[in-house]
């Protein structure tokens, strides 16, 4: 029997926050600086959850590996300077976050985003209740899909892994949740490639819109 959910954990980019517009600005500014053609927003959006190197490779597909790291860092420096210009909580999630606050349900974030970027971004948002835990990609020696970041998040929330649900927009997120023996939810509105299908992800729940998550939270904690 599945244990009742007592804690909600979110991936950050593409699940809790829509960071795609600020990433698009930074990546196209990097393209301009290095005389590369600008990229379409939708093309960038599909790879945001794959991280900074994947976006850098998208912009400079023919560049040798030895030169990519410097451009990735240039891109991330620009992103850092404009990290909260257009980033927003995904519309529809506000209700769910308000319910978590009202019911005093612990919640948190587990992301592969580097800590220096995660911490700065978190300073820009005042949630209805603050997350009990924020685990970044470099908080530990390993990151998702390894279970250790998930274990630490559950520990900091004071909830057993089996009573946590982890929601993310990448198969890696579902794998991480399963590895940690958590319940899982696939955020199908996130930064997914066109070929992504939830049936290919062994998640316990599917959320086609952010509001679906709010409805799930409402049903879970108010009935």
UniProtKB/TrEMBL annotation:
GO cellular component terms, A-Z: cytosol
Keywords: Carbohydrate metabolism, Hydrolase, Magnesium, Metal-binding
One family name in Pfam for this protein: HAD_2
GO molecular function per UniProt: metal ion binding; phosphoglycolate phosphatase activity
Biological process, per Gene Ontology: DNA repair
Statement: the UniProt record of this protein carries the keyword Nuclease: no
Transmembrane regions listed in the UniProt entry: none
Gene3D superfamilies registered for this protein in UniProt: HAD superfamily/HAD-like (3.40.50.1000), Putative phosphatase, domain 2 (1.10.150.240)
Official protein name in the record: Phosphoglycolate phosphatase
Organism annotation: Thiosulfativibrio zosterae
């Amino acid at each position: 029997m599945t244990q009742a959910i007592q804690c909600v954990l979110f991936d950050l980019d593409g699940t809790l926050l829509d960071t795609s517009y600020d990433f698009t600005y930074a990546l196209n500014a990097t393209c301009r600086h290095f005389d590369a053609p600008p990229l379409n927003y939708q093309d960038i959006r599909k790879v945001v959850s794959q991280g900074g190197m994947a976006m850098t490779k998208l912009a400079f597909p023919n560049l040798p590996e030895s030169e990519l790291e410097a451009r990735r860092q240039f891109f991330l420096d620009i992103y850092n300077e404009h990290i909260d210009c257009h980033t927003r909580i995904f519309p529809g999630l506000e209700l769910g976050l308000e319910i978590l606050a009202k019911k005093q349900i612990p919640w948190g974030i587990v992301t592969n985003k580097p800590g220096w970027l995660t911490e700065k971004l978190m300073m820009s948002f005042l949630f209805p209740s603050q997350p009990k835990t924020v685990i970044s990609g470099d908080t530990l020696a390993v990151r998702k899909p390894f279970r250790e970041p998930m274990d630490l998040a559950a520990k900091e929330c004071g909830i057993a892994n089996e009573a946590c649900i982890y929601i993310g927009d990448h198969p890696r997120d579902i794998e991480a949740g399963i590895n940690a023996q958590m319940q899982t939810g696939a955020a199908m509105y996130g930064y997914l490639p066109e070929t992504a299908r939830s049936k290919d992800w062994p998640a316990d729940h599917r959320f086609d819109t952010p509001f679906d998550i709010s409805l799930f939270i409402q049903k879970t904690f108010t009935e």
